[in-house]
């Protein structure tokens, strides 16, 4: 039997990370995970339907009670089955955002938000109502009823309601799944602002690779209720033993910083950490110094021993061969560019003709670059 705690237990010598172990057995399915996650930024739980993503999130929230479980968050112990301690859901300092915003239909936007805020004593409020309104861009919606909102607006209000509870942990269960593409693109920039401006760790459940690539810092791959991989997003996407790299959509995510804009051709120029090289891509002007995230698919990278002259490709980068992995008739190469890494997929024939070897200096010819985080 679980004992119930009235308050969290402080964790001595806390390093700010989130640690969780859950064992939940159901007929035909078991969730058995052991996680060590960063105490800030976005950790994405990714996997196919039925992999255990939502079950794991419900354990974090205290909505499901594992047969065996341990959880500490932000210096507090919320659960430890060995000690018979279980902090119930309503005592956990969490914000929970579901696929549907679940707004109270009889309350205005303002009253929905005030309802969430009243859960927290005034002295403990860390996210002010005005701050949530500004972050989610919903100040003009306060007097509307939920029925008068678009799907994207409802979801933004739902996120704001979760924020004004001043959570120590924000749980988001596929918050964009019920939205069409236009509404997703409406909400994504606001999710990104939360990531950049709030120091609240987020667990983000999704089965959409583009959402994960755009928002996540840390990636957890779940499969049949178990953790297949867990690590920093940019490193985990490159692992040859995981499906990300072997898939036709294999891609690398890298960071850049805006350093110039060519107004005549509408080309944005990005500097890359640790490299004198830069990327160019068609895009409207952004402020110099603005940090962005881009993705480059392995299939859009070809290799050459010399720098191509007279090429239509915008991006020809000097890189270094790091490692490679055989994929049937093709080879998947990991390439270093400054402090970051790219993927390239070439044929075995090209691999041999180029004399590929570790540490080799070579030119990467990049056909397409996609901006993920403007």
Oligomer: single chain
Distance between the termini: 50 Å
The average pLDDT is 91
Q: Could you tell me the number of beta strands?
A: 23
Q: Low-confidence spans: pLDDT under 50, at least 5 residues?
A: none
* CA radius of gyration: 23 Å
**What is the number of helical segments per DSSP (H or I, 4+ residues)?**
9
What structural class should be given to the helix and strand makeup? alpha+beta
Approximate helicity band: 10-25%
Tell me the fraction of residues in β-strands, as a range: 35-45%
Architecture blueprint of SSEs:
Blueprint: E1 3-4, E2 9-10, E3 18-26, E4 29-37, E5 42-46, H1 53-61, E6 68-73, E7 76-80, E8 85-86, E9 94-97, H2 109-117, H3 129-136, H4 151-163, E10 169-173, H5 181-197, E11 202-206, H6 209-215, E12 218-223, E13 226-232, H7 233-236, H8 243-246, E14 251-262, E15 267-271, E16 278-282, E17 291-297, E18 301-304, E19 315-327, E20 330-337, E21 340-347, H9 348-353, E22 361-366, E23 370-371
Parallel strand pairs: 1-8, 5-11, 5-12, 9-10, 10-11
Antiparallel strand pairs: 2-7, 3-4, 3-6, 6-7, 7-8, 12-13, 14-15, 14-17, 15-16, 17-23, 18-22, 19-20, 19-22, 20-21
Task: Put the structure in a nutshell.
21% of the residues lie in helices and 37% in strands.
Task: Explain what the structure shows.
- There is one protein chain.
- The protein is α+β, with helices and mostly antiparallel strands.
- The protein contains 9 helices and 23 strands.
- The strands form 4 sheets. Strands 1, 2, 3, 4, 6, 7 and 8 form a 7-stranded mixed sheet that branches.
- The longest helix has 17 residues, at 181-197.
- The mean pLDDT is 91.
